[in-house]
Amino acid sequence: MPDFEAVIGLEVHAQLLTRTKLFCACSTRFGEEPNSNVCPVCSGMPGVLPVMNAGAVEYACKMGLATDCTINPVSTFERKQYFYPDLPKAYQISQYAEPLCEHGRVEIEVEGERKTIGLTRIHMEEDAGKLIHSPGEGASYVDLNRCGTPLIEIVSEPDIRSSEEAVAYLKALRSILVYLGICDGNMEEGSFRCDANVSIRPRGQKEFGTRTELKNINSFRNVGRAIEAEIARHQDCLEDGEEIVQETRLYDADKDITVSMRGKEEAHDYRYFPDPDLLPVTVEESWLERWRGELPELPMAKRDRFKERYGLSEEDASLLTAERDVAEYYEAAVGVYDAPKKIANWVMGELLRELKDCETSLAGCKMEPAHLAELVRMVESDEISGKIGKKILPELFRTGKTPTQVVEEQGLSQISDTSELESVVDEVLAAHPGEVERYQGGEKKLTGFFVGQIMKRTKGQANPKLVNQLIAKKLG
Q: Each residue of 311-325: b (16+ CB within 10 Å) or e?
């Protein structure tokens, strides 16, 4: 049988973080009462006129600049026509023939190898509403709050060859969007959604195979699983002599299979034509220059700089730069106490764990970067033990107190007085003569037992280095 390779292209819809919708003044706030953020424009009433949201154009252009796209000085809106209950106008205002951005690229890294994924286009469009199904009532309801929310659709070239590359590409895109502050990247709330076009072909063949589209996959993990399932299905079909049908499919995560949804639409099915109510979008070069100057350092560049400047591994630099607020927090802490690797370990371990446990972001953390730097310095200088440092971090996180305050209030300073510790060591050794005899008989691993007993008596405040030295000295 031939050796097949996958050919994958992704279409990503990213909801822009504007306060109002694309063509009206309704709020884009998520989680409001159904149909509370709706007006005659976004609900498709006859005779109303859309008015372009200039902020959405700026955000879309910034994404184009960040991905090395050509920003077209003139782009146009068209009506993409289809009938669905959550689309009140029976058409979606989108861009087709003349998009805002074209011919960009995104760098990804998989297993230490970098690869460039081409972007065909980035265009603007409005979102549809949302259907809410109630099986118990045998009914479906329509919520138009999301209708008219500004989106950009980011269409990749068919340059992706595996599910791993697809997930890396999506994560790279999401990081760029979040770094720019133009999308929150929340897949669960639908502000970052992905459709995948999948086909396979015998390795070495230039012609593409028949592709199928996987719609609205809602997590990075499921994107990878859905693509793997569809590749396997294509291969089984070809090996059994069956024809691949061009269609749209859905991924069933519980069964780990894809199921047919409908025949795949082509552009002519949507009967695109220019929207007569909207003028062409014109973008001036002076605007692009200003927006280019406002771009932050982007994730891949920041990752490379962190590796070079702070001596971090690829894995550590990737984790620290995945979210802009985490990267900035880390760098601020290092600016206070120059211990890049030690602070990286505390950020990646204790701080991110606390954020996860509290189900919050850094915006909800009261521990300032300077406080984390102070905590790491106190541990490194043996003022407190690492165990005590980890113990008090949740309180620092919640209260915003400094480590010095908490240590003083709770009397947690590390005991490093030799005479004080010597008496505790003597007590522990006297209380465990059997273990002492075994240690002196060659069971050196019992050091850990003695250290544990001493830590128990001192409530974790004994200097472990000094304790080890005293045990070795007394037991020979």
A: ebeeebbbbbbbbbe
